[in-house]
Write a structure and sequence with these properties.
Length: about 290
């Protein structure tokens, strides 16, 4: 038989046995059915068993043409430092009582005496009050008020006057003065229970004890008498308002504080022509109530 092809050419196909002719027409019929199915459904179907796996290798780009883009590191969430919760203000405040003893480094004779030279040890038992505020684990500030604070002049000369009757010089030496005291100090704990402190003090002097002497032409000093002066006579010899610098060390085991201060007058204690700035030392004991 002859089979038509595209164009004007024809080809002739010969068949042998009848079975071959039947298989040929069956194959043609199946091909036409597949074409009709593609036209109607738009899908191409074929048996999977006709697929023959073949190894295929694609040539990659040259290394010189490759552009390497660094991989972005995974963004780690910044961990916020653990912020310590602030303590309530009442937990950072502390208060208690204070007792102290002050003296000059030259003469400690009148520590237990009042401004009238009479021994009164109970005056050291009059407590003051103190309040402290924690600034951090190591830092704090302390305010203290003492109703009976002594300042010692070290028995130094504060006033001198010629006495024509005895042909000698009358000297007035300051022994001690007492009054109110207010202090504000900064404390820094440098090791365990130990701290150093520094700050300022203000004293309002109310009365003072003086020693009167006579000094003859040979320079011999003869004690005469002691005198206690109060306002308004006191202002003829002393400044009644003095400012001091205080620095010291504190040992704080639990509710107790024991320490020592060095007191340096910043203002001249004397109002006469003879200046007076005597260094004082102080020992104190504090008990924390709150």
């Amino acid at each position: 038989m002859k089979e038509a092809k595209s164009g004007n050419t024809t080809s002739e196909k010969s068949f042998g046995p009848a079975g071959n002719q039947t298989a040929y027409f069956k194959e043609k019929t199946n091909s036409l059915e597949n074409i009709n199915n593609i036209k109607s459904t738009g899908k191409l179907s074929f048996p999977v068993k006709n697929l023959n796996p073949r190894s295929t290798r694609f040539s990659g780009p040259e290394k010189s043409r490759m552009v390497q883009v660094p991989a972005k590191p995974e963004s780690k969430k910044e961990e916020n430092p653990k912020t310590k919760s602030r303590k309530p203000i009442l937990k950072t405040l502390h208060a208690g009582l204070e007792w102290n003893a002050t003296t000059s480094f030259k003469n400690t004779k009148y520590i237990l005496s009042g401004a009238d030279s009479i021994s009164k040890p109970y005056l050291l038992l009059i407590p003051g009050i103190w309040i402290s505020k924690d600034l951090s684990e190591r830092q704090s500030v302390t305010f203290s008020f003492l109703p009976h604070q002594s300042y010692f002049g070290g028995n130094k000369l504060i006033h001198q006057k010629a006495d024509s009757i005895f042909i000698a010089t009358k000297n007035t030496n300051m022994i001690k003065a007492v009054g109110l005291n207010f202090s504000l100090q900064y404390n820094y704990r440098f090791y365990s229970s130990w701290a150093i402190s520094g700050g300022f003090g203000y004293s309002k002097l109310q009365k003072a004890l003086f020693q009167g002497n006579l000094q003859n032409y040979a320079g011999k000093i003869i004690p005469v008498s002691m005198v206690t002066l109060k306002k308004p006579d006191l202002i003829n010899f002393l400044q009644t308002n003095i400012i001091t610098f205080k620095t010291g060390i504190i040992f704080n085991p639990g509710r107790f504080q024991v320490g020592a201060n060095l007191i340096v007058p910043l203002t001249d204690v004397s109002v006469t022509s003879t200046p007076l700035r005597t260094l004082n030392g102080q020992l104190f004991f504090r008990f924390r109530i709150k």
